[in-house]
Specification:
Two copies of one chain form a homodimer. By secondary structure, chain A is mainly alpha-helical. Chain A has two domains: 73 residues, Multidrug-efflux Transporter Regulator, Chain: A, Domain 2; 77 residues, no CATH class. The first copy, chain A, is built from six helices and two strands, in the order H-H-E-E-H-H-H-H. A two-stranded antiparallel ribbon of chain A has the order 1-2. The longest helix of chain A has 42 residues. At the A-B interface, helix 3, helix 5 and helix 6 of A face helix 3, helix 5 and helix 6 of B. Chain B binds a DNA duplex through helix 2.
Chain lengths: 152, 152
Amino acid sequence: MLYTVGEMAKVLGVQPSTLRYYDKEGLLPFIERSEGGIRMFTQKDYEALKVIGCLKQSGLSIKEIKSFIEMAGKGDETIEERLKLFQTRREAVKKQMDELKETLDMLNFKCWYYETAKKDGTEENVSKINPEDIPAHLQQAKKKLDMLYSEK
Amino acid sequence: MLYTVGEMAKVLGVQPSTLRYYDKEGLLPFIERSEGGIRMFTQKDYEALKVIGCLKQSGLSIKEIKSFIEMAGKGDETIEERLKLFQTRREAVKKQMDELKETLDMLNFKCWYYETAKKDGTEENVSKINPEDIPAHLQQAKKKLDMLYSEK
DNA sequence: ATATAACTTAAAGTTAACTTTAAGTCAATA
DNA sequence: TATTGACTTAAAGTTAACTTTAAGTTATAT
């Protein structure tokens, strides 16, 4: 089964122009063309695009992804290099997730804060609450807002 | 304790120009100035900047954060609106975390793939492996790469 | 009193990752 | 065979979020 750029874009949920841009930037050197010059995407290309999407989500730029594609094009001699790249990406994603967890904690605190304010009809009381009266699982997030207080 | 723009930037780990840019964009209407016109950041401002950072991390643009700041400036009448905003942000961050989890699964598969290739000295074997011979916890990620195969 | 480091503003510059446009070609349907 | 919709390229345009520059001011240390 072969796909045109529009079909593959639909499957991936991106614009056709995005795939053409990736091609122009050297991310898709493996895409074959019909006699008339039309791009023909295969299942293998879909896989490669999924991996490209994964690397993008992990924080790599288009240029960096290009250099990975070039690496992959060199075959077995770059296996170790590619392993290291994916290991580094894995650590980067773990870090991103940790940061998002912190953000989530803060948002949970803020939701609690505004739920309380809503019940009271005013921020007046909740804004002056004692740290001990904040639900235990939200105290850490609150402390992060207070950090400067602990300095002289 | 008061901080200049440079000191506050250092504490937050951003450029002073970033804080000036935020101020220009209306994110910091509450920052006071010295007689000479120098910005003086307080603990309260630090808290506000932390919340701004949290909203940014959750996916809000500078403009959207500005409209939140304006909301907050209106006081108690916007409590419910702000609650809804934080609830929406919380859902957005959860979704982001789910997406990152998928990315992590894929990276774990890729790490396993290249570790195996490294042991073998070639991708030859691992690239042709039977799905059943892939470690159980990695099979889901592998399936995502294969999805198009299941279509006609 | 003066040097210097950090502050001020407005305006221009940067960068990444697309998206749009224009002019033209290919491929499937009536 | 003609129409139509999707394809092609190169080049220009867009957007967000800063960053840099230039010209000048404030605050601190000697």
